[in-house]
Amino acid sequence: MNKRLFCGVLALSICLTLGLAACGNETGNNENGGHVHTADSFGSDEDIHWKVCTDCGEKFIEEDHKYNGSNTCTECGYTIPETAGLEYELNEETDTYSVEGIGTAGDVETLYIPAYHDGKRVTEIGYGAFFECTFTAVKIPSTVERIEGAAFTECNALTEVKIPDSVTFSKAFGGNALLKSVTFGKNSKLETLGKGSFGYCPELTSVNLPDGVRLIEDDTFEESKIYTDKSFWTDGILYVGNHMIATDETVSGKVTVREGTKTIAEAAFQDSGDVTEVVLPESLVALHDYIHDMTKREAKSVVIPKGVEIIGSNAFSSFYGVDHISVESGNAFYNDGNGANCLIETATNKLVLGSNDTQLTAAMGIKEFGYFAFRGCNFESFTIPDGVTKLEVATFAGCANLKSVEIPASVTELGYEMFSECDKLQNVVFKGSVNDWKALTEKSEGWDDGAQEIAFTITCNDGQAPRTER
Known about the structure:
This protein is mostly beta strands. It is built from three helices and 38 strands.
């Protein structure tokens, strides 16, 4: 045989052999040795479908069902045995349905929520929809994106729940006497766990919170077994998955949050002792409200890791007189003003937190001061730079040594209790006219609450102004 022809035939033979070895409807790589999975059909249950490799027997492509308008999975053929008689409400803006109640379905053993109703997707389970219902199991389709508050509260026959990957918001399962396990899929899109989501579930011991959760509101696990049984805690800190949920009174002084933590929940330090410093891990993505309880606690320094993307509006609300603030190089969401000893949200130019020695200039382009931005700082005077338009709640609250503040005419809104507990305050200089000041205070309700007994004056460009128009 011609040598060139022989080589071509050999190459074709090798290609065909490799192609046949990888045949099948779907393939996946086995990390143990590089084996390529093959399978001809799906296996399924009421929650998910999967394939099993015909060569090695390993399960792969495990995922939620993908439904069409007939409530049949387009991949594996499973059809939801829809519970008849449920109540629905059409959202005309999104042209989707929310399931709102048990309706005429009565006492069913398993609640099957359809993916489609009247040809439209079911994307939400409404507030209190199945409150105190008696079913023992619930099947939630992969079209549902939100499960509103109390949707399954006090469904006291439920023992386990599987939440599909599609759900981004849940606030629904508190107060279930027998609930033991909550399972999220490995591809879960969950972003928010609402207040009390799994609170008061005395048997709850297993919740595999996805890493992608970015907001865990307060009391999420309050009085659940995970919360009350100290065997779930580590050195006075409760972690659920890679999320820090709570602390107890034994946690004080310098606290180091364990590496791998993705989110620090609201009120995480509510019950801690006297915490003076929190060392945040490189893994942290979201830092949320009430990093400390609403009490006076002196924090020496704040260092924000480069991976942090979200900081809650009250995250530092109880810090008094921070000495040092820095943001690690490479953070795309926050900065420290190039060494200005402050914390700034990069996208909005909002000052999140200031220190005893923050140095601000108009050139920095700051537009807004956040909640409690300078709470408890020890400076005697402060000049707000030109260009700032909004001062949020309690900007200078607790600044016991503060005597004078200069406010530019660019400010259009003063925050509630802005000077609360500033007992030495003598003068506020406003760089606009008296009429401008009057207009500003008329739309800034409560700006001087907590400071009404303090005898400070308002000095404008054209004279003295009244404190407020009442």
